[in-house]
Amino acid sequence: MYKNRFFCITLLTIIFSIGITFHTAAAEPISLSSNSDIYYLGDYIVIFGSVETVFENMPITIQIYYDSSLIDVAQVPTAQDGTFAATFTALGQQWEGEGTYSARAFYTTNVIAEITFEFYSQIIDASSAAFPVNIPNSGTFDVGYTIRGGEVKNIEMDSERYSILIETSMDTNGNLVLKLPRESFDAQNGGADENFIVLISKENTSAENFMNVEYEEIGTSAEYRTIRVPLEEGDKWVEVIGTYVIPEFGSVVIIILVVAITSTIIISRSRLPLRYN
Predict the structure, then answer these.
(1) CATH code of residue 68
(2) What range does the domain containing 239 cover?
(3) 166, 237 in Cβ contact below 8 A?
(4) Integer Cα distance of 35 and 19 in angstroms
(5) Residue 157's domain is classified under what CATH number?
(6) Same domain flag for 165 and 141
(7) Nearest 5°: phi and psi at 7?
(8) Considering its fold, how many domains does the chain have in total?
(9) DSSP symbol at 208
(10) Considering 120, 154, 173, which residue would you say is the last residue of a domain?
């Protein structure tokens, strides 16, 4: 009798323990990330993450949605350490909508994760508007721009640093595309293109509030250089520093010494690397 009771208690303990184990495994979290926050037509979208509990021969299902429309789906295996990754290409008729997309990962019915990212069509030569920029005591030149996630309120020359200063109002993460006319504003050294210096501030135009950021040059021609700057919610000022400005109605070339300027703008804070991986 005692042995039977002991056996029953032991069996119930084992069953209860197994039940707890399965319940805990089913509730294990899943982490999910993407290699960028913003994508454009033709980009590779990498969705990756990890699970704490790996079930043999059970793949991760990853779905890409735009609103309620399923755009793409993939099933990928998990490594022994629980990591996984899937790559999608933003091409085809299904990638017509612009805005917020979501990536959803399913491992079991209880292990689900979701993240969002922004997708836009590629912008190279076209610009949605042109802003006349006043050069102090000299004239004006036009800067073409397209902005996502906010609006451009003003573009002007900075009278102290001789740079282009763009005032923005960002409601969400997005980007700013600037179409810069070479004859008026450029960054060169000995006839060869140099990188612009791009700084961003969420506060005001005081030098200590600016952070150095990376940009992507998405269009280059004999007349223009087109750059795309990723912006975050709350970004207010974007400063682009080149090497010279040529007034439209004057003959004076204003030489900008980038090294001298950046020595006064100590880039102690940075948002590097950014979204272009």
Answers:
(1) 2.60.40.1930
(2) 129-264
(3) yes
(4) 37
(5) 2.60.40
(6) yes
(7) -65, -40
(8) 2
(9) G
(10) 120
Nearest to 199 by CA among 276, 246, 261: 261
Looking at 81, 103, 120, which one is the last position of a domain?
120
User: CB within 8 A of 199, min separation 6: which ones?
Assistant: 210, 211, 212, 213, 238, 239, 241, 265, 267
How far apart (Å, rounded) are the C-alpha atoms in residues 104 and 113? Answer: 6
Instruction: Specify whether 134 is located in the same domain as 255.
Output: yes
The pLDDT value recorded for residue 217 is 87
Domain assignment present for residue 18? The answer is no
Q: What confidence score (pLDDT) does residue 172 get?
A: 82
Helix (H, G, I), strand (E, B) or coil at 11: helix
Q: Per-residue pLDDT tens for 23-36?
A: 333 444 889 999 88
* Rounded Cα gap, residues 72 and 61, in angstroms: 11
Residues 170, 225, 46: CA angle, nearest 5 degrees:
60
pTM (predicted TM-score): 0.53
Provide the edge-to-edge strand list for the sheet that holds 44-51. Answer: 30-34, 44-51, 83-89
**pLDDT tens-digit series, residues 104-162:** 999 987 889 999 888 887 654 434 688 998 876 777 889 988 888 888 999 998 756 76
Same domain, 83 and 53: yes
Q: Residues 148-153: contacts with CB within 8 Å, 24+ apart?
A: 148/118, 148/120, 148/174, 148/175, 148/176, 149/118, 149/173, 149/174, 149/175, 149/231, 149/233, 150/174, 150/231, 150/235, 152/176
Total H helices, total E strands in the chain: 2, 21
Token pair in block for residue 5: 């009771």
Residues of the chain with pLDDT under 70: 1-28, 122-128, 136, 159-160, 162, 246-277
